[in-house]
Write a structure and sequence with these properties.
Blueprint lengths: L1 H25 L51 E11 L3 E11 L2 E10 L5 E4 L3 H4 L4 E3 L5 E2 L3 E2 H5 L4 E4 L4 E8 L9 E5 L3 E6 L2
Antiparallel strand pairs: 1-2, 2-3, 3-9, 4-8, 5-6, 5-10, 7-9, 10-11
């Protein structure tokens, strides 16, 4: 009788240890290594009956994005310095020197400089025309015109001369903040276009 109980106890311990070993195998990060007895024995590799599908070793992780959704990086507010040449005729230059993101707007900073002995004659259109003379072109093809510029606010409809060696800090404010992921371009009056700007 005692012998029968000992055999039953040993068999019970072996069965419990075997089931425990099978359960431990299925909880490893790399997925199942054997298909011993247990609730997950019949499940395909990488799948458990109590949770989501786990990637098999060496396979890419499943995507968590919704199909058709577009991720859009929202740029942080603040200035970004740069030096992108817009215009150079050998004596006169115009350079994009910075971009500044504020609430819903993008301010573009430009610097005009001249080495010409006679200076550089510049013309500012009247305000209405001025605000249609420059634009941003976004990644989706939209053109966005400024709501304010140096010319529109400081010198609408005037001509003036930038004297030799002098520098003029100009700017334009656009009612848009391009996505941080997408490049855009600036067309500034008839001086040219700077491509591939990015926040």
């Amino acid at each position: 009788m005692l012998r029968k109980h000992l055999i039953g106890l040993i068999v019970g311990v072996v069965v419990i240890v075997s089931l425990g070993a099978a359960a431990v195998v299925w909880l490893t990060p790399d997925g199942p290594e054997s298909t011993g007895p247990g609730p997950d024995a019949a499940a395909p590799a990488g799948v458990t009956t109590s949770g989501p599908t786990q990637p098999t070793p060496g396979s890419p992780a499943p995507s968590t994005t919704v199909p058709g959704a577009v991720a859009s990086a929202s740029p942080e507010a603040g200035p970004r310095q740069m030096s992108r040449l817009l215009y150079d005729d050998g004596q006169n230059t115009a350079t994009v020197t910075g971009l500044e993101v504020t609430a819903g707007t993008l301010r573009v900073q430009l610097r005009y400089a001249t080495r010409s002995p006679g200076g550089w004659v510049l013309s500012c259109p009247a305000r209405t025309a001025d605000l249609q003379s420059s634009h941003l072109t976004l990644a989706d093809g939209r053109e966005v015109f400024p709501v304010d510029t140096y010319c529109a606010s400081q010198r609408p409809g005037t001509d003036f001369t930038l004297r030799p060696g002098a520098v003029l800090e100009s700017w334009g404010v656009f009612p848009v903040v391009p996505s941080g992921d997408d490049p855009f371009s600036l067309t500034w009056y008839d001086l040219g276009t700077v491509e591939g700007l990015k926040l």
